[in-house]
């Protein structure tokens, strides 16, 4: 009888201690996320931004940045940050490759999140639909955004094959096919690719676009900071591009 009461008391104390620990851990995690989210809502201060601009003047920045989400669930706040940071660092094109198609299915929610954060004088051009528009006489910052899925890569090849088979001059040369695929892609080939995950995996990214792309792996985009983003640009700038040599 004594041993049963002892084990019951021990279990009760252990359960209470674990419950308190779990509550404190959850509270601290929530506070940490709120602090990080608050910091993500804004670009660096003017003084810090000037230092960053001076640093950017000394490094090579990509024209087109592509982000491979891998198995990571899209977090719109972090992806919006990347778009805003690309504008701040003079990157003209950014694409997001989600092989699972989640981001494309929820594109309106993604655009809404960006609209809440984007300045009116900045212009974001979405290329996920054929009705992408430009503002006439626009003089502010501008960036092109595209969402890519695994199906987009497959459909590009299928559609190109069908179109070539219907034309009178059926030029199936490698150069002609490559040029046609580039036109369908709309964007210039990516200079830098950020791959999310512990291991390197392209997840069937359209191979004809990445012949000269420099890929860097990052563990996660979750709560990524502006300084971490700059670190990736510095890493890219230090890479030696041989361009097939």
Automatic annotation (TrEMBL):
EC number: 2.5.1.87
Subcellular location: Endoplasmic reticulum membrane
GO MF: ditrans,polycis-polyprenyl diphosphate synthase [(2E,6E)-farnesyl diphosphate specific] activity
One Gene Ontology CC term in the entry: endoplasmic reticulum membrane
Keyword list, A-Z: Endoplasmic reticulum, Magnesium, Membrane, Transferase, Transmembrane, Transmembrane helix
Origin superkingdom: Eukaryota
Gene3D superfamilies per record: Decaprenyl diphosphate synthase-like
Protein family per UniProt: Belongs to the UPP synthase family.
The protein's name: ditrans,polycis-polyprenyl diphosphate synthase [(2E,6E)-farnesyldiphosphate specific]
Lineage: Eukaryota, Metazoa, Ecdysozoa, Arthropoda, Hexapoda
């Amino acid at each position: 009888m004594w041993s049963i009461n002892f084990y019951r008391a021990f279990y009760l104390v252990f359960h209470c201690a674990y419950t308190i620990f779990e509550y404190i851990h959850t509270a601290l995690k929530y506070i940490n996320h709120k602090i990080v989210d608050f910091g993500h809502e804004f670009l660096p201060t003017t003084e810090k931004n000037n230092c960053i601009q001076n640093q950017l003047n000394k490094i090579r920045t990509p024209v087109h940045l592509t982000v491979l989400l891998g198995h990571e669930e899209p977090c719109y706040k972090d992806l919006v940050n990347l778009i805003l940071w690309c504008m701040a660092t003079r990157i003209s094109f950014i694409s997001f490759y989600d092989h699972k198609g989640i981001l494309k299915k929820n594109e309106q929610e993604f655009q809404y999140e960006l609209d809440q954060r984007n300045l009116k004088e900045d212009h974001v051009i979405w290329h996920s639909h054929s009705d992408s528009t430009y503002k006439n006489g626009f003089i502010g910052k501008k960036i092109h955004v595209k969402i890519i899925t695994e199906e987009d890569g497959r459909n590009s090849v299928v559609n190109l094959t069908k179109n070539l088979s219907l034309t009178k001059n059926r030029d199936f040369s490698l150069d002609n096919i490559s040029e046609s695929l580039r036109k369908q892609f709309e964007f210039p080939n990516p200079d830098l690719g950020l791959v999310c995950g512990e291991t390197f995996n392209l997840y069937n990214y359209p191979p004809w676009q990445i012949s000269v792309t420099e890929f860097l792996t990052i563990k996660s985009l979750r709560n990524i900071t502006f300084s971490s983003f700059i670190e990736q640009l510095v890493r890219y700038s230090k890479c030696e591009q041989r361009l097939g040599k």
